[in-house]
Amino acid sequence: MADSTPGAGGTPGREDEHASRRPGLLMGRLFGIPVYVSPTWFIVAVVITWIFEEPASRVVDRPASYLVAFTYAVLLYASVFVHELSHSVVARLFGLPVRAITLHILGGVSEIEREPRSPGREFLIAFAGPLLSLVLGAVGLLTLLATLPDVARLLVEAVTFANFAVAVFNLLPGLPLDGGRMIRAAIWKVTGQPRTGTIVAGWVGRAVAVLVLVAGAFAATYRADDLGFGWVSLIWSALIASFIWVGATQAIRTERVRDRIPLLQARRLARRATLVTAGVPLAEAVRRAHEEGSGAIVIVDHDGRPTGLVSEQAVLATPQNRRPWIEVGDLSRGLEPGLELPADLSGEDLVVAIRKAPATEYLLVEPTGRVYGVLAVSDLDRAFAGV
Questions:
Q1: Any residues with CB less than 8 A from the CB of 196 and at least 6 apart, and which?
Q2: Residue 58, C-beta contacts closer than 8 angstroms, at least 6 positions apart
Q3: How many Cβ atoms are within 10 Å of 218's Cβ, its own excluded?
């Protein structure tokens, strides 16, 4: 089972797109954290049920053996959920917001919005998952000391082994696994540079991905006759290896992007804005914007107070022949909380403010309340690519 506890990273535009998508079926909330199950989980549940049905059939007749096998699939992912929940709870204890927990085909992921401020906290958040998996495994061993019905013993044995396997796998020393985050924390502590820790742990993660793929190929080639599922081992190892490789690569890329964040300034990226009332025809508003050399249109009331932002995409999508007959207010979005930002924002503060309220445009205002301009996320994305 693969696990990851990502922090803040990537361009704001890409994060907003991700935040706007539902990662799966919402199963509920625990400690205020939404819990999703990806549709891919049902694929792996079928595979696990199919594989585990054979040993289950030794203790219970068919078709009940299929129910036992499916129960194991559910218990396995319940263990993964508890593993992820431990990451999230510890992160919340340190004041870090958790966007969601999602269970998917390779295990689960805790979406922690910001990274810890110290290597010690980073280590504790990462270690919480494997530690709880080890505890669950130990509880399983103690449970096996009691006299249990055959079906219960089979399930406890399987879940116990799975918890130990999840713990050991996630302790592998490479991002995006928990062991990689622990390595990152250790290097951060020694060097004082979280960036160095991320780069090293990311490259180690790539090496781990290659080793996982080689191990899967070895198992498929030399143990196929014994296991009977050589091709399953190969496919599974390829999926896990690709997950680790992509996660490690994303961590390295994110760190390089983060190097550019301090150079981002809202004022420098802002577009000049033309102020119009909501009843002005779109064609007239566009004409005024062109005349003033503006790149954005802001709706104001009759006292000059800003009330909305006109969507650039909506303007471009409106045919020229219709623009005289459409009021500019019809293409505007009200100034909801978070869409009005100080013009002096820069660096990480700017990125965090945008993540809190995903949108395509933001109104920038001076400390006096006067409109300075409009910040378009598309411009910010281009800045990430070209700063």
A1: 187, 188
A2: none
A3: 13
Cis, peptide link before residue 176, omega less than 30° from 0: yes
For residues 341 and 306, the answer to whether their CB atoms sit within 8 Å is no
Contact of 177 with 4, CB cutoff 8 Å: yes
Residues whose CB falls within 8 Å of the CB of residue 25, separated by 6 or more in sequence, listed in order? 36, 37, 38, 39
pLDDT in the model for residue 171: 94
- The pTM score is 0.68
Distance CA(209)–CA(194), nearest Å, equals: 22
Q: Are strands 361-365 and 371-376 parallel, antiparallel or unpaired?
A: antiparallel
Q: Give, for 4, the enclosing helix (H) or strand (E).
A: strand 2-4
Q: How far is residue 34's CA from residue 88's CA, in Å, rounded to a whole number? A: 11
Q: What is the rounded average pLDDT for all residues in the chain?
A: 86
From residue 280, give the alpha-carbon distance in Å to each of 287, 289, 325, 341.
11, 12, 10, 25
**In angstroms, rounded to a whole number, what is the distance separating the alpha carbons of residues 280 and 329?**
8
Q: What is the pLDDT of residues 91-137, one digit of tens each?
A: 999 999 998 999 887 778 888 888 898 999 999 999 999 999 999 99
Tell me the residue type at 94. Answer: F
Residues 6+ apart with CB under 8 A from 209: 174, 241, 242, 244, 245, 248
Q: pLDDT at residue 18 above 70? A: no
CA distances from residue 193 to 4, 78, 173, 190 in whole angstroms, order as listed = 21, 36, 18, 8
